[in-house]
Recover the amino acids of this structure.
């Protein structure tokens, strides 16, 4: 039985004041039993968020990390630094990193390896573009990204995979529950070929314009084990409604 996981990716948003108020809203009221919840702020907001979440069940992650553990990499943040701070998760291979920073599957694989070594749990993102889906290439592209990003990993033990079709991120378009389930089944089959022992236990999140009104249908699919949420994670009421849908 896989416990549902709902992760908020706050991207490059927030100020100290807005984060205080967002977390005030998120942490007020009873915690929802049975669903794991995490938030991923910018690097600079991590200490604030970790302190505010310390007494709660909410866990915290970063949105990226370096592919190296230390050294002359100006501007980078090592996974060990994130782990030392108290982060549990790190999002890797997000399509915005691939698109704006030219991240390749090989670089994502190097990040996955050092993140696991540092004790973090990577949330590895994969997803096809609209053109690739229209060309009937979606499953081939996503399987290749996954195999590339997990190159060298013999065990899936510490990993979460997020399927985020690029055409659904921040666009208001969502994969239908059937489209998402079909891809999640394909991802699980791909994971089976990497580590048959852990593939069934690995959580597969869906991401791409998840909202309160589509979350329940997505979570009802057998291979959708939660969500990676962007825009709707920035409003406490919206994010809480998605968490509630996971717990229903
Ligand atoms: C994301 O970028 O991870 C994401 C899923 O964004 P949104 O929910 O805004 O589509």
């Amino acid at each position: 039985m896989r416990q549902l996981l709902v992760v908020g990716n706050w991207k490059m948003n927030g100020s100290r004041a807005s984060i205080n108020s967002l977390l005030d809203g998120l942490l007020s009221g009873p915690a929802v039993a049975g669903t794991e919840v995490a938030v991923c702020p910018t690097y600079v907001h991590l200490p604030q968020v970790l302190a505010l979440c310390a007494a709660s069940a909410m866990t915290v992650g970063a949105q990226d990390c370096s592919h190296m553990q230390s050294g002359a990499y100006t501007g980078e943040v090592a996974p060990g630094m994130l782990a030392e701070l108290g982060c549990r998760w790190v999002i890797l291979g997000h399509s915005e990193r691939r698109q704006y920073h030219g991240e390749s599957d090989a670089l994502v694989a190097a990040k996955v390896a050092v993140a696991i070594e540092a004790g973090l749990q990577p949330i590895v993102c994969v997803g096809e573009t609209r053109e690739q889906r229209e060309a009937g290439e979606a499953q081939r592209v996503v399987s290749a990204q996954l195999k590339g990003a997990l190159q060298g990993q013999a065990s899936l033990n510490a990993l979460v995979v997020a399927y985020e079709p690029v055409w659904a991120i921040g666009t208001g378009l969502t994969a239908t529950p059937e489209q998402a389930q079909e891809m999640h089944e394909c991802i699980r089959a791909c994971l089976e070929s990497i580590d048959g022992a852990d593939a069934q236990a690995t959580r597969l999140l869906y991401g791409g314009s998840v909202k309160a009104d589509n979350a329940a249908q997505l979570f009802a699919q057998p291979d959708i084990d939660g969500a990676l949420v962007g825009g709707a994670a920035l409003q406490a009421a919206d994010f809480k409604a998605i968490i509630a849908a996971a717990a229903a």
